[in-house]
Design a protein that fits this description.
- Keywords: Membrane, Transmembrane, Transmembrane helix.
- It comes from Streptomyces qinglanensis.
- This is DUF6286 domain-containing protein.
- The chain is of the alpha+beta class.
- Among the domains are: about 70 residues, no CATH class; about 90 residues, Alpha-Beta Plaits (2-Layer Sandwich), CATH 3.30.70.1350.
- About 35% of the residues lie in helices and about 10% in strands.
- The protein starts with about 70 loop residues before the first helix and ends in a 6-residue tail after the last strand.
Length: about 260
């Protein structure tokens, strides 16, 4: 007989009815026995492939490869972060500007004083009357007129050249590796560095290096070794030294090697 309160049917989760604080186990039942019910077997759902490569590519995360939300270095800095056009340094031209301003101030001041004196009933300055008479009486093809015009034209051209050229020819512009920072190198310092590099070459007795904005010239004397070998080693050492200077525009290189003069 079946105890009261027990229907004999299995619990949906496969276990018998459980009371509070007690554990009951399902009794084995024989198929076809009275009071027993057979449940249909549910087919198992096939699980996905365990191999991550077979499951296909994983979509990239929006927070970056590390998941920390930081962008890669190349994206954070941007392409060409340290690149940019490196222009030359412009001179302030304090001395020419000061001289021109002082001359203009003195000339306009004297003319205004003379004009105010004439308006007040006094006689004008003698030099102004003489200059006015000379300009009124002389012809345009006069030698003094042509000479004065040439001097004034030369001064005006000189001022235009000073205003349109950057100046600071002794300063070489360096490569802008850091954004917002401009650096320069004196030509004398660059020549000293390259001279030290040239003296390290075997066979070089003395060397003279001159550096300009477009070319580096080295004149060396070799007291031993073949001149062609010394010239090749010197050329390689100076080219490596020029590359290490970090200049914005790499100058050309001219190397001359000769034997020292014979002593008599």
């Amino acid at each position: 007989m079946t105890p009261a309160g027990d229907t004999g049917a299995p619990h949906p989760n496969g276990a018998g009815r459980r009371g509070a604080g007690t554990t009951s186990e399902k009794a084995p039942q024989t198929p076809g026995a009275p009071g027993s019910t057979e449940l249909p077997e549910t087919p198992e759902t096939p699980e996905g492939p365990s191999d991550p490569e077979a499951a296909g590519p994983t979509p990239p995360s929006a927070s970056g490869p590390s998941g920390s939300g930081a962008a890669p270095p190349e994206e954070a800095d941007g392409p060409g972060a340290g690149a940019g056009k490196a222009g030359r340094f412009w001179s302030v031209r304090r001395v020419p500007a000061g001289v021109v301003a002082l001359l203009l101030f003195a000339g306009t001041g004297i003319l205004l004083y003379d004009a105010a004196s004439v308006r007040a009933g006094r006689t004008g300055m003698a030099w102004r009357r003489t200059l006015t008479d000379e300009l009124a009486s002389r012809r345009l093809d006069d030698v003094l007129m042509l000479a004065g015009a040439a001097v004034l034209a030369a001064l005006g051209l000189w001022l235009l050249v000073l205003a349109l050229t950057p100046g600071k020819r002794s300063l070489l512009t360096m490569r802008p590796d850091v954004p917002g920072v401009r650096a320069g190198l004196e030509r004398s310092a660059a020549a000293l560095v390259l001279r030290d590099r040239a003296m390290e070459v075997s066979g070089v007795q003395a060397v003279r290096v001159t550096v300009s904005r477009r070319r580096v010239r080295a004149r060396a004397t070799a007291h031993f070794r073949d001149l062609a070998e010394v010239r090749g080693d010197l050329d390689g050492a100076l080219r490596a030294g020029i590359a290490e200077l970090g200049l914005a525009g790499r100058p050309g290189l001219a190397v001359q090697v000769r034997r020292p003069p014979k002593r008599r």
